[in-house]
Amino acid sequence: MSVAVAGGRHLHALLGSLGRLARNPLATLLTLLVIALALALPTALRLFVTNAQAATGNFANAIDLSVFLKTDVPLLKAQQLAQAAQRRHDVASVTLIPADKGLEDFRTYSGFGDALVALKENPLPHVLHVRPRPEDSSAAALDALRTYFNAWPEVDLVQVDSEWVMRFNAILEVLRRLLLIAAVLLGVGVLAVVGNTIRLEIAARRAEIEVTKLVGGSNAFVRRPFLYTGVLYGLGGALLAWGIIAVTVAVLGEPVTTLARLYGSRYLLQGPAALDVGILLGAGAVLGWLGAWISAARHLRSIEPRA
Amino acid sequence: MIVFDRVSKRYANGREALNNVSFTVHTGEMVFLTGRSGAGKSTVLKLIALLERPTRGAVVVAGRNTQSLKSRHVAAYRRHIGVVFQDHKLLADRPVYDNVALPLAVAATPLKEIDRRVRAALDQVGLLGKERVLPLELSVGEQQRVGIARAVVSKPPLLIADEPTGNLDPDLSLEVMRLFRRFQDVGVTVVIASHDHHLVREFGQRVIVLENGQVQGDAADPLPSVLAYR
């Protein structure tokens, strides 16, 4: 069989499947809708996780140490200490927040601005914000850093700002697991929906299948249009799911921006990335094909021509 | 072309349809299978088309023993046999063209070639111009001719027909039989099961008479006594 002829046969089967779906628009739409919802849910969950991560400035990786110096340490000494810390191989960056800057920030953001005016002198120490390298963010590595800074005589207190980050990471991990479970369960759901739809179509076209086998149609030939139908269902459902997600993102966009602004952020809700859409469409097509294949393998074999 | 060697066939319900049947049909021959309903005519055809397999004995078609044929090769095997049914088994929701084109489509024939051969087959059965008509819009005789066009469109070396004139009046029956003879004239082996012995006799071809699953007579030039089984 030449490539052109093979391509022609596939095109023929594809067009035939499309035609049959189009002839039954309501039933097709309902099936597509069920598949779309099953695919949209895990996609939405994934978007939620991505957005939650992005909205919080990716601080999942941002575990900082705040090294509070004693109040009598002069600024020049603080700068020397910052340089020394910077030289450590497990430290990504060191930011020195001088006491004056700290007071300024506190006045601006805390809401106690007026009360602070009453203070005669600055009660705040100089602070070093130390960010470890991402690969040195484990609890053990952090402990090592803490011990190192604590050993300095100029240091009053070392605070690891990691607890809430770890909590947040734990929540994200729960969400990711949920996403995985939802994706698997709903994927099986798509298989079942497509499989059942194909089973009904095979039953409805029984006579045609018998005659086709009678004139020498192979199992592959008989199966082909059903596989295309399955892929079309899966792909169509995935496209519809994409549409649902796009509308959801559009509807949620403004309130999310407002919410973010109230928290002093200029965050914009992110829609699905090209990779997400690719995975969605790919998963739809593969699930549709697989559902149809399982159903066709089960039900076509039992149909043999009778004279 | 066809060899039945001591073939017996017992169906799952226990009915013994054929009992120790042997005969040979040579390439290019036209043979009638006759006998009462239930004598085993249809079973012989089913064994040839591999719709059934023999319980005992061997059915050899075109040098191939059907018993040893693996099920994945059955489709390719059937493409070498044109089958005509009494109820013609046309797809009611497809136009004549699609029905006739089906055996070519399953054999991966290029579209241009399909077009040419479908028209040629419809021309042979006198139905050129009816390509876009649905089978149910045709008369019974025309439907049967569509069935024949479908059976011959892929130019199979073997044509088998089960009561092809069962639903037709005598004039139409004769017409259909003449059609089969024209295929024999171009070298096709033709096996026709028919209980219409008047018609069979009129053609003066070889007749195999079956009764109760056994061969009762096999004559190249049938004698009246052979046919007088009623």
Structure, explained:
The complex is a heterodimer of chains A (307) and B (230). Chain A is 70% helix and 8% strand. Chain A folds into 2 domains: 3-58 and 166-300, no CATH class; 64-161, Alpha-Beta Plaits, CATH 3.30.70.3040. Chain A is α+β, with helices and mostly antiparallel strands and 307 residues long. Chain B is α/β, with parallel strands linked by helices. Helix content of chain B is 34%, strand content 25%. Chain B contains 8 helices and 10 strands. Chain B has helices at 41-48, 74-78, 96-106, 111-124, 140-152, 170-185, 197-203, 224-227; strands at residues 2-10, 16-25, 30-34, 56-61, 64-65, 81-84, 158-162, 189-193, 206-211, 214-219. In chain B, the strands form 2 sheets. Chain B has a 6-stranded mixed sheet with strand order 6-7-8-3-9-10, with helices on both faces. In chain B, strands 2-1-4-5 form a 4-stranded antiparallel sheet, with helices on one face. In chain B, helix 3 crosses helix 4 (111-124), helix 4 (111-124) crosses helix 5 and helix 5 runs parallel beside helix 6. The model of chain B is unreliable at 222-230 (pLDDT under 50). Chain A binds chain B through residues 1, 4-6, 8-9, 12, 207-208, 210-219, 221, 304-307, and chain B through 42, 45-46, 49, 51, 72, 75-80, 83, 85, 89-91, 94, 102-103, 105-111, 150, 162.
